[in-house]
Amino acid sequence: DAGVIQSPRHEVTEMGQEVTLRCKPISGHDYLFWYRQTMMRGLELLIYFNNNVPIDDSGMPEDRFSAKMPNASFSTLKIQPSEPRDSAVYFCASRRSDSYEQYFGPGTRLTVT
Amino acid sequence: ELKVEQNPLFLSMQEGKNYTIYCNYSTTSDRLYWYRQDPGKSLESLFVLLSNGAVKQEGRLMASLDTKARLSTLHITAAVHDLSATYFCAVDIGGAQKLVFGQGTRLTINP
User: Fold this and answer.
1) Do B72 and B34 form a contact (C-beta atoms < 8 A)?
2) Is B82 helix (H, G, I), strand (E, B) or coil?
3) Looking at residue A113, what is its pLDDT?
4) Which helix (H) or strand (E) element contains residue A61?
5) CB–CB of A100 and B31 under 8 A?
């Protein structure tokens, strides 16, 4: 059984460029979460979806960040335009509605120069 | 605003010793999670504690939850090198599915 899949695993881009991070949750999981991890701020929840609908995006830092979930097996997190302070590891996680346990993907390490 | 604080943040210990990591949180919650993260890796779920007095054990790790004290502990028994990692606790804000993480405890176990 495949776990949460994220791509790319590493992304290096220049300031001002658009960045798109992708996530495929575990099949059958109806909650999807996007987190960001930095040394300064630790692990932060950015946004989460239930049945493809965004429920809480209060953690999204600013309008440069947007997230979508067009179907149950795919989500994107987009940063446009990117800035050096966006450099972090971005994790996607998913869980079933009848379980409290969240399963994390391998993460995408984003570096903005 | 919910705050989750872990203590200590860094812990270096010898194999064979016992130690405890503490996780305090600032608001009511009945659900607490412990995760492990190895350097450069993702988070691995260790325990989900769902009620006051809950205790779970897996190998040399045991976690407990006291919701009245807003405190969870992760106890390590007879530590071995393989347990070296960063351990995070996280609290679920009252059914909102939002996990708020502690700062993490970096555990180093020396032979």
Assistant:
1) yes
2) helix
3) 97
4) none
5) yes
Cβ-defined contact of A42 to B101 (cutoff 8 Å): yes
Share of chain A above pLDDT 90, in %: 92
Sign of the CA dihedral running A49, B5, A100, A94 = positive
Up-side HSE of residue B33: CA atoms within 13 Å toward CB?
Answer: 20
Could you tell me the two tokens for B4?
Answer: 């989750």
Task: Return left, alpha or beta for A58; rule: phi > 0 is left, psi -120 to 50 is alpha, else beta.
Answer: alpha
Collect the ranges in chain B with pLDDT lower than 50. none
Instruction: Tell the burial category of B2 from Cβ atoms under 10 Å away from its Cβ (0-12, 13-18, 19+).
Output: middle
Say whether A45 and B98 touch across the interface (CB within 8 A): yes
Residue A32 three-state SS: strand
pLDDT digits (tens, 9 = 90+) for A35-88: 999 999 999 999 999 999 999 999 998 899 999 999 999 999 999 999 999 999
Whether cis (ω within 30° of 0) applies to the bond prior to A8 is: yes
Tell which phi-psi region holds residue A40, choosing left (phi > 0), alpha (psi between -120 and 50) or beta. Answer: alpha
Compare CB distances from B42 to A42, A48, A91 and report the shortest one's residue. A91
How many of the other CB atoms lie within 10 Å of CB of B91? 26
Token code pair at residue B51: 């009620």
Q: Are B103 and B6 in contact (CB under 8 A)?
A: yes
Could you give the angle at the alpha carbon of A36 between the alpha carbons of A62 and A111, nearest 5°? 85
